[in-house]
C-alpha cells in the first residue's frame, strides 16, 4: 500500500513544516489566489541524535556544500577505526549531497544525500535528508528567511467530501500517552459539534494498526452520500527509479565476500543494503550448494576492495573477506 493522500500537520500553513512522526516535509506557497502545498519524504534523526522540534528559519543556502565534520561524529567514527577529515569536499563521498539549506538552529540542515535508501528512516545525526531529485526542487523554491516549523504529530485528523479521516503513525514511547490524550480530546470535541457518536472501535483499530495511511472513521453529516476514497491499482514500473546499476562480472577484478547465509531472502536483503550504501557498493547474490553468497564488486584493484571491506565493517558491521582475481594460465 502506497499513501497517495496525506493529512496536513495541525500547524499554521506557512513556509516549511516538518512532521517527524510521519517523516514528511510540507512546503506551503501562495500563487496569488490559493495556497499550494508540496510534500516530500525525509530521513530524520536517530533516538541518540534526534532532530530538534520548534520554530526556525532558513539562514542560508549552498550548492555542492562542503561538509564540516562535527566533533561528535568524528569521535564516533574514530572509535570504529575510521578517521574522518575535518572537511569533506563536494562529491560522491559527501553525505550532504548537492544542495543544502542551513537552518537558524546551528548545526542542523535540510539537505540531499548520497544514501537515498535512508529516506523514510531514523538514520541521520539530527539533520533532515531528502531524495536528491526532491531537494533540488525544494532548494529552488525556498528563499532564505523562509520559516521552518518542526513538529512531532503521530495522530492526524482531516476531512474530505464529508468523511473524517485518521492518519496514525507509531509514536515514541515517551509521547504515546500525551499524543493519545490530544487525539481523543479533538475527537470528543467533534462529537459534541456534530451531535453524533463516533465509531470508537474504528478509531482504536486505526490507532493500534498505525499504518500511516488516512483511514475513514466517521461521516460528518447524516446521509452525506459521500464515500471514502478507495485504493487504486498502480502499475509496477519496469525500471525502479534510482536503483543502482551493478557492473558486469570480470575475472580479472577484485571482490569481497560479504556474507554466506542459508536463507535466500536474507542474502538478497544484505545485497540490497550494500547496494544502497553512499556511495553505492555493487553487490549480488550467488547460489552455492547449500547456501547463498553475497559478493561485493567488481573492484579495479586490491586497494579498492580493501577500502570497500573497511566501509562494510564500519557502516554495517560486516566482516568482509577480500577475494583476489582469478589467475588464468
Amino acid at each position: 500500500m502506497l499513501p497517495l493522500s496525506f493529512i496536513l500537520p495541525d500547524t499554521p500553513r506557512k513556509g516549511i513544516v516538518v512532521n517527524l512522526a510521519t517523516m514528511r516535509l510540507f512546503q506551503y506557497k501562495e500563487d496569488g489566489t490559493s495556497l499550494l502545498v508540496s510534500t516530500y519524504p525525509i530521513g530524520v534523526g536517530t533516538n541518540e541524535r534526534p532532530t530538534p522540534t520548534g520554530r526556525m528559519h532558513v539562514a542560508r543556502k549552498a550548492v555542492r556544500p562542503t561538509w564540516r565534520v562535527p566533533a561528535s561524529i568524528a569521535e564516533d567514527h574514530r572509535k570504529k577505526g575510521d578517521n574522518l577529515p575535518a572537511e569533506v569536499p563536494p562529491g560522491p563521498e559527501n553525505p550532504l549531497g548537492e544542495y543544502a539549506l542551513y537552518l537558524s538552529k546551528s548545526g542542523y540542515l535540510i539537505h540531499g544525500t548520497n544514501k537515498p535508501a535512508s529516506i523514510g528512516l531514523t538514520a541521520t545525526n539530527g539533520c533532515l535528508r531528502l531524495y536528491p531529485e526532491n531537494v533540488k526542487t525544494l532548494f529552488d523554491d525556498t528563499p532564505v528567511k523562509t520559516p521552518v516549523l518542526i513538529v512531532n504529530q503521530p495522530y492526524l485528523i482531516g476531512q474530505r467530501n464529508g468523511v473524517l479521516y485518521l492518519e496514525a503513525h507509531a509514536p515514541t514511547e515517551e509521547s504515546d500517552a500525551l499524543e493519545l490524550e490530544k487525539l481523543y480530546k479533538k475527537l470528543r470535541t467533534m462529537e459534541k459539534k456534530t451531535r453524533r457518536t463516533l465509531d470508537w472501535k474504528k478509531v482504536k483499530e486505526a490507532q493500534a494498526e498505525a499504518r500511516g495511511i488516512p483511514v475513514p472513521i466517521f461521516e460528518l453529516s447524516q446521509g452525506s452520500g459521500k464515500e471514502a476514497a478507495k485504493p487504486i491499482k498502480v502499475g509496477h514500473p519496469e525500471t525502479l527509479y534510482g536503483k543502482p546499476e551493478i557492473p558486469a562480472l570480470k575475472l580479472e577484478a577484485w571482490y569481497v565476500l560479504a556474507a554466506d547465509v542459508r536463507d535466500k531472502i536474507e542474502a538478497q536483503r544484505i545485497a540490497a543494503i550494500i547496494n544502497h550504501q553512499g556511495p553505492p557498493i555493487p553487490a549480488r547474490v550467488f547460489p552455492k550448494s547449500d547456501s547463498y553468497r553475497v559478493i561485493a564488486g567488481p573492484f579495479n584493484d586490491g586497494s579498492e576492495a580493501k577500502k570497500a571491506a573497511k566501509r562494510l565493517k564500519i557502516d554495517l558491521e560486516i566482516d568482509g573477506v577480500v577475494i583476489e582475481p582469478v589467475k588464468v594460465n
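Residues 155-219 form one domain. The radius of gyration is 24 Å.
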